[in-house]
Amino acid sequence: MKLSSIIKLMRPHQYIKNLFIFLPLFFAIKITDTELLANTFIAFIAFSLTASAVYIFNDYHDIEEDRQHSKKKNRPLASGAISKPQAIGIMTILFVAGFTLMASLSLKATAILAAYVIMNIAYSLYLKHIAILDVTIIAIGFILRIFIGSVITDIHLSMWIVIMTFLLALFMALAKRRDDVLIYLDTGKKMRKVINGYNLRFLDTAMAIMAAVIIVAYIQYTTSTEVIERVHNEYLYLTTLFVILGIMRYLKIAFVLKSSGSPSNIVLKDHFIQLILIGWILSFAGILY
Question: Residue 187 in 3-state DSSP?
Answer without folding.
Answer: helix
